[in-house]
Amino acid sequence: MVAALIRELIITGELTTGEQLRQRDLAQRFGVSQTPVREALRRLESEGLVIGDNHRGFMVVEADEGSTEENFQIRAALESLGASLAAAKIDEAGVKRLEELNAQMQAAGEEKNARYGRTQPGIPLTVYEYAHSPLLMSLMRLLWASLHGGPRVMRTHADSVRQHAEILDALRAGDAAAAASLTHRHIMASSTCPGPEAPEPAALVSKCSYA
């Protein structure tokens, strides 16, 4: 239970990259002793979300460039599987729900405001809901957490919206193979973007979107 609570704080960004995790503070926050907090942090360390140090305690990890590339490959495999499973189970109401999320993403991108980044992660995670696989959902939440704020790619908002629409068409048709193929291509076809703090030209950063 405590591990799930801390994991969710990392996933949502409330516990930020590099932040020191004080066991006493977490224990007070959750109303438990420090023992279950310590056990939870060790579990999260095995998942790669935190790192322990004998002197500094536990901290939220920073993913290096190599592991981020691996995460994209894993993400492509898991998300294409999720799309394939969802294609066989999703109903018209579910497709319309996803289309509404995609429309919100398009509107937010056109307005160039912060809502874009908060809207988009709901699209793949909602697809997984229709896959009806709790294990897949859990794995993807862990993966998105390791990408700290979600993956960023060299693709315009318009391209992301268009590619999402193609995937939704495959879901509506119940075409598992097409949904999986389009999803895999959507993720792997773009280069990763620099983080918002990276000293990259504005023209480059402006093309980055959440995948």
How are strands sequenced across the largest beta sheet? 1-3-2
Low-confidence stretches: 113-119, 194-207
How much is the average pLDDT?
78
Question: In this structure, how is the largest beta sheet organized?
Answer: 3 strands, antiparallel
Order of helices and strands: HEHHEEHHHHHEHHHE
Distance between the termini: 30 Å
- What do we call the CATH topology of the largest domain? Four Helix Bundle (Hemerythrin (Met), subunit A)
CATH architecture descriptor text of the largest domain: Up-down Bundle
Query: Briefly, what CATH class of the largest domain?
Result: Mainly Alpha
- Whole-number count of domains: 2
Q: Report the strand count.
A: 5
Structural class: mainly alpha
Instruction: Kindly provide the radius of gyration, computed on alpha-carbon positions and rounded to a whole number of angstroms.
Output: 18 Å
Strand content: 5-15%
* Alpha plus pi helix count: 11
